[in-house]
Amino acid sequence: MKNAKTLQKPTSRPALALVSLILIAGAGLLIFLTLLGGAIDKNPTNQFYFLEADTNGLGTAPSLTRWTFWSTCSVTDGRNVCPRVRAAYPFDPRRNFGSDDIFGGSKYYLETRFMFAFVLIALFFTVCALFLGLLAVISRIGSFLSSATCSVALFFQTVTAALMTAAYVQGRNAFRSVDRTATLGRYNFGFMWAAVACLFLATLMLCVGGVTGKRDKGYSSRGTGGRKFFGRKKSTRSNRDRGSFIDPERQRRMEKEDDD
Question: What is the pLDDT of residues 86-134, one digit of tens each?
Fold first, then answer.
Protein backbone atom coordinates (compact mmCIF):
# COMPACT_ATOMS: atom_id res chain seq x y z
CA MET A 1 0.00 0.00 0.00
CA LYS A 2 2.82 2.40 0.85
CA ASN A 3 4.51 1.75 -2.49
CA ALA A 4 1.25 2.37 -4.35
CA LYS A 5 0.78 5.72 -2.61
CA THR A 6 4.36 6.68 -3.38
CA LEU A 7 3.80 5.96 -7.07
CA GLN A 8 0.61 8.03 -7.17
CA LYS A 9 2.06 11.19 -5.61
CA PRO A 10 4.28 12.32 -8.53
CA THR A 11 1.29 12.24 -10.91
CA SER A 12 -0.36 15.16 -9.07
CA ARG A 13 1.94 17.82 -10.53
CA PRO A 14 1.57 16.76 -14.20
CA ALA A 15 -2.19 16.49 -13.74
CA LEU A 16 -2.40 20.02 -12.30
CA ALA A 17 -0.15 21.30 -15.08
CA LEU A 18 -2.37 19.78 -17.78
CA VAL A 19 -5.51 21.30 -16.26
CA SER A 20 -3.71 24.64 -16.02
CA LEU A 21 -2.74 24.44 -19.69
CA ILE A 22 -6.38 23.92 -20.63
CA LEU A 23 -7.43 26.92 -18.53
CA ILE A 24 -4.70 29.15 -19.98
CA ALA A 25 -5.59 28.12 -23.53
CA GLY A 26 -9.24 28.84 -22.78
CA ALA A 27 -8.40 32.28 -21.41
CA GLY A 28 -6.31 33.08 -24.49
CA LEU A 29 -9.14 31.99 -26.78
CA LEU A 30 -11.69 34.14 -24.94
CA ILE A 31 -9.44 37.21 -25.09
CA PHE A 32 -8.75 36.62 -28.77
CA LEU A 33 -12.45 36.28 -29.60
CA THR A 34 -13.17 39.54 -27.77
CA LEU A 35 -10.48 41.28 -29.80
CA LEU A 36 -11.95 39.98 -33.05
CA GLY A 37 -15.35 41.52 -32.33
CA GLY A 38 -15.79 44.48 -34.67
CA ALA A 39 -12.61 43.71 -36.62
CA ILE A 40 -13.92 40.86 -38.77
CA ASP A 41 -17.37 40.82 -40.32
CA LYS A 42 -17.91 37.09 -39.86
CA ASN A 43 -20.19 34.99 -37.71
CA PRO A 44 -20.01 34.78 -34.69
CA THR A 45 -17.56 37.66 -34.10
CA ASN A 46 -19.95 40.17 -35.67
CA GLN A 47 -22.21 39.63 -32.67
CA PHE A 48 -19.59 40.65 -30.10
CA TYR A 49 -19.72 44.17 -28.64
CA PHE A 50 -19.36 46.00 -25.33
CA LEU A 51 -22.37 48.30 -25.39
CA GLU A 52 -25.42 48.73 -27.57
CA ALA A 53 -27.35 52.00 -27.24
CA ASP A 54 -30.06 54.05 -28.88
CA THR A 55 -28.21 56.90 -30.60
CA ASN A 56 -30.95 58.14 -32.93
CA GLY A 57 -30.54 61.84 -33.70
CA LEU A 58 -27.06 62.22 -32.20
CA GLY A 59 -24.88 63.89 -34.81
CA THR A 60 -23.60 61.34 -37.34
CA ALA A 61 -24.67 58.32 -35.27
CA PRO A 62 -26.94 55.57 -36.64
CA SER A 63 -30.20 54.81 -34.88
CA LEU A 64 -28.58 51.95 -32.97
CA THR A 65 -24.87 51.83 -32.19
CA ARG A 66 -22.55 49.17 -30.84
CA TRP A 67 -19.07 49.82 -29.45
CA THR A 68 -16.18 47.42 -29.99
CA PHE A 69 -12.40 47.61 -29.66
CA TRP A 70 -12.17 48.80 -33.26
CA SER A 71 -15.12 51.01 -34.14
CA THR A 72 -18.69 52.11 -33.57
CA CYS A 73 -20.94 49.81 -35.56
CA SER A 74 -24.50 50.03 -36.76
CA VAL A 75 -26.78 47.01 -36.38
CA THR A 76 -28.39 45.01 -39.18
CA ASP A 77 -30.31 41.79 -38.39
CA GLY A 78 -28.66 41.65 -34.99
CA ARG A 79 -25.12 41.80 -36.40
CA ASN A 80 -22.40 44.45 -36.37
CA VAL A 81 -21.87 46.55 -39.47
CA CYS A 82 -18.62 48.44 -38.99
CA PRO A 83 -17.77 50.86 -41.82
CA ARG A 84 -14.22 51.57 -40.70
CA VAL A 85 -11.83 49.82 -38.35
CA ARG A 86 -9.30 51.58 -36.15
CA ALA A 87 -7.34 50.07 -33.26
CA ALA A 88 -8.05 51.23 -29.70
CA TYR A 89 -11.26 52.99 -30.70
CA PRO A 90 -12.40 54.93 -27.59
CA PHE A 91 -15.81 54.97 -25.99
CA ASP A 92 -16.68 58.66 -25.92
CA PRO A 93 -20.12 59.37 -27.45
CA ARG A 94 -19.58 63.11 -27.58
CA ARG A 95 -16.37 62.66 -29.56
CA ASN A 96 -17.57 59.61 -31.50
CA PHE A 97 -20.59 61.39 -33.00
CA GLY A 98 -19.49 65.04 -32.88
CA SER A 99 -22.50 66.03 -30.79
CA ASP A 100 -22.73 68.08 -27.59
CA ASP A 101 -26.17 66.67 -26.84
CA ILE A 102 -24.77 63.55 -25.20
CA PHE A 103 -22.34 62.71 -22.42
CA GLY A 104 -18.62 62.12 -22.91
CA GLY A 105 -15.26 63.26 -21.72
CA SER A 106 -11.70 62.24 -20.98
CA LYS A 107 -12.75 59.71 -18.33
CA TYR A 108 -14.45 57.40 -20.82
CA TYR A 109 -11.82 58.11 -23.45
CA LEU A 110 -8.83 57.19 -21.27
CA GLU A 111 -10.45 54.14 -19.68
CA THR A 112 -11.17 52.50 -23.02
CA ARG A 113 -7.89 53.50 -24.63
CA PHE A 114 -5.86 51.97 -21.80
CA MET A 115 -8.16 48.97 -21.86
CA PHE A 116 -7.01 48.09 -25.38
CA ALA A 117 -3.32 48.37 -24.44
CA PHE A 118 -3.75 46.22 -21.34
CA VAL A 119 -5.67 43.49 -23.13
CA LEU A 120 -2.86 43.13 -25.67
CA ILE A 121 -0.32 42.80 -22.83
CA ALA A 122 -2.56 40.24 -21.13
CA LEU A 123 -2.84 38.22 -24.33
CA PHE A 124 0.93 38.28 -24.84
CA PHE A 125 1.69 36.96 -21.36
CA THR A 126 -1.11 34.41 -21.66
CA VAL A 127 0.55 32.96 -24.75
CA CYS A 128 3.93 32.96 -22.96
CA ALA A 129 2.39 31.17 -19.98
CA LEU A 130 0.88 28.59 -22.32
CA PHE A 131 4.28 27.67 -23.77
CA LEU A 132 6.01 27.71 -20.38
CA GLY A 133 3.20 25.54 -19.07
CA LEU A 134 4.53 22.71 -21.21
CA LEU A 135 7.60 22.69 -18.96
CA ALA A 136 5.37 22.53 -15.90
CA VAL A 137 4.33 19.01 -16.91
CA ILE A 138 7.87 17.72 -16.43
CA SER A 139 9.48 20.01 -13.84
CA ARG A 140 8.76 22.09 -10.76
CA ILE A 141 10.78 25.00 -12.16
CA GLY A 142 8.47 25.04 -15.16
CA SER A 143 5.48 25.21 -12.81
CA PHE A 144 6.85 28.24 -10.99
CA LEU A 145 7.95 30.02 -14.19
CA SER A 146 4.57 29.44 -15.79
CA SER A 147 2.72 30.55 -12.66
CA ALA A 148 4.76 33.78 -12.54
CA THR A 149 4.01 34.54 -16.20
CA CYS A 150 0.38 33.59 -15.75
CA SER A 151 0.08 35.92 -12.75
CA VAL A 152 1.29 38.83 -14.89
CA ALA A 153 -1.34 37.97 -17.51
CA LEU A 154 -3.93 37.74 -14.72
CA PHE A 155 -3.01 41.20 -13.45
CA PHE A 156 -3.38 42.92 -16.82
CA GLN A 157 -6.52 40.98 -17.71
CA THR A 158 -8.11 41.92 -14.39
CA VAL A 159 -7.27 45.59 -14.96
CA THR A 160 -8.73 45.33 -18.48
CA ALA A 161 -11.97 43.77 -17.24
CA ALA A 162 -12.24 46.37 -14.46
CA LEU A 163 -11.77 49.27 -16.89
CA MET A 164 -14.29 47.71 -19.27
CA THR A 165 -16.87 47.35 -16.52
CA ALA A 166 -16.30 50.86 -15.18
CA ALA A 167 -16.53 52.58 -18.59
CA TYR A 168 -19.39 50.71 -20.20
CA VAL A 169 -21.59 50.26 -17.13
CA GLN A 170 -21.36 53.99 -16.49
CA GLY A 171 -22.07 54.60 -20.16
CA ARG A 172 -25.13 52.36 -20.08
CA ASN A 173 -26.43 54.16 -17.01
CA ALA A 174 -25.79 57.54 -18.62
CA PHE A 175 -27.79 56.55 -21.72
CA ARG A 176 -30.64 55.28 -19.58
CA SER A 177 -30.64 58.46 -17.50
CA VAL A 178 -31.69 60.41 -20.64
CA ASP A 179 -34.39 57.87 -21.55
CA ARG A 180 -32.38 56.00 -24.16
CA THR A 181 -32.21 52.21 -24.22
CA ALA A 182 -28.79 50.68 -23.63
CA THR A 183 -27.58 47.12 -22.97
CA LEU A 184 -24.21 45.57 -22.23
CA GLY A 185 -22.74 43.00 -24.61
CA ARG A 186 -23.14 39.71 -22.76
CA TYR A 187 -20.54 37.91 -24.88
CA ASN A 188 -17.69 40.38 -24.38
CA PHE A 189 -18.40 40.83 -20.69
CA GLY A 190 -18.72 37.10 -20.19
CA PHE A 191 -15.53 36.38 -22.15
CA MET A 192 -13.43 38.96 -20.35
CA TRP A 193 -14.42 37.98 -16.81
CA ALA A 194 -14.28 34.27 -17.65
CA ALA A 195 -10.70 34.81 -18.84
CA VAL A 196 -9.90 36.38 -15.47
CA ALA A 197 -11.32 33.33 -13.69
CA CYS A 198 -9.39 30.91 -15.92
CA LEU A 199 -6.09 32.72 -15.38
CA PHE A 200 -6.66 32.88 -11.62
CA LEU A 201 -7.35 29.15 -11.36
CA ALA A 202 -4.41 28.33 -13.63
CA THR A 203 -2.02 30.45 -11.55
CA LEU A 204 -3.23 28.78 -8.36
CA MET A 205 -2.91 25.27 -9.78
CA LEU A 206 0.59 25.89 -11.12
CA CYS A 207 1.76 27.15 -7.73
CA VAL A 208 0.20 24.16 -5.99
CA GLY A 209 1.80 21.84 -8.54
CA GLY A 210 5.25 23.27 -7.91
CA VAL A 211 4.90 23.03 -4.13
CA THR A 212 3.43 19.52 -4.36
CA GLY A 213 6.40 18.30 -6.38
CA LYS A 214 8.78 19.67 -3.74
CA ARG A 215 6.89 18.00 -0.92
CA ASP A 216 6.79 14.66 -2.70
CA LYS A 217 10.55 14.75 -3.15
CA GLY A 218 11.06 15.78 0.46
CA TYR A 219 8.86 13.02 1.81
CA SER A 220 10.62 10.30 -0.17
CA SER A 221 14.07 11.40 1.04
CA ARG A 222 12.88 11.72 4.60
CA GLY A 223 11.40 8.24 4.52
CA THR A 224 14.68 6.69 3.34
CA GLY A 225 16.72 8.62 5.87
CA GLY A 226 14.32 7.67 8.62
CA ARG A 227 14.65 3.97 7.99
CA LYS A 228 18.46 4.21 8.05
CA PHE A 229 18.41 6.24 11.22
CA PHE A 230 16.13 3.85 13.07
CA GLY A 231 18.17 0.88 11.81
CA ARG A 232 21.36 2.28 13.32
CA LYS A 233 19.59 3.19 16.49
CA LYS A 234 18.23 -0.32 16.86
CA SER A 235 21.67 -1.87 16.39
CA THR A 236 23.13 0.51 18.96
CA ARG A 237 20.53 -0.48 21.49
CA SER A 238 21.16 -4.20 20.84
CA ASN A 239 24.90 -3.71 21.39
CA ARG A 240 24.23 -1.92 24.61
CA ASP A 241 21.92 -4.67 25.73
CA ARG A 242 24.54 -7.30 24.97
CA GLY A 243 27.11 -5.27 26.83
CA SER A 244 24.87 -5.06 29.87
CA PHE A 245 24.69 -8.88 30.07
CA ILE A 246 28.44 -9.40 29.55
CA ASP A 247 29.66 -7.12 32.32
CA PRO A 248 27.91 -8.86 35.28
CA GLU A 249 29.12 -12.27 34.05
CA ARG A 250 32.72 -11.13 34.09
CA GLN A 251 32.30 -9.81 37.61
CA ARG A 252 31.00 -13.17 38.80
CA ARG A 253 34.00 -15.00 37.35
CA MET A 254 36.39 -12.59 38.95
CA GLU A 255 34.69 -13.09 42.35
CA LYS A 256 35.00 -16.93 42.06
CA GLU A 257 38.70 -16.66 41.21
CA ASP A 258 39.24 -14.48 44.30
CA ASP A 259 37.47 -17.01 46.54
CA ASP A 260 39.61 -19.84 45.22
Answer: 889 999 999 999 888 889 889 999 999 999 999 999 999 999 999 998 9
Strand 64-67's sheet: what is its strand order?
79-81, 72-76, 64-67, 51-54, 182-184
How far CA 82 is from CA of 25, 38, 40, 69, in Å, comes to 29, 7, 9, 11
- Is cis: bond before 14, omega within 30 of 0? no
Which residue in 198, 203, 195, 200 sits closest to 30, CA to CA?
195
Q: What pLDDT, in 10s, does the model give residues 194-205?
A: 999 999 999 999
| Closest C-alpha among 101, 96, 109, 11 to residue 61 | 96
- The whole-angstrom separation of Cα 118 and Cα 112 is 10
Q: Distance (Å, rounded) from C-alpha 27 to C-alpha 22?
A: 9
Backbone angles phi, psi at 139, to 5 degrees: -150, 150
Please name the amino acid found at residue 127.
V
DSSP state for residue 100 in the 8-state scheme = S
One-letter amino acid for residue 7 of the chain: L
| Radius of gyration, alpha carbons of the chain | 34
- For 234, the enclosing helix (H) or strand (E) is helix 186-259
- Cβ atoms of 161 and 23 within 8 Å: the answer is no
Strands 51-54 and 182-184: antiparallel
DSSP secondary structure letter of residue 45? G
Other beta carbons less than 10 A from residue 76's beta carbon: 11
Give the angle subtended at the CA of 140 by the CAs of 137 and 145, to the nearest 5°. Answer: 90
**Gap between the Cα atoms of 131 and 133, Å rounded:** 5
Q: Please say whether the dihedral angle defined by the alpha carbons of residues 15, 16, 20 and 23, taken in this order, is positive or negative.
A: positive
| Residue 258 neighbours by CB distance under 10 Å | 7
**One-letter amino acid of 101:** D
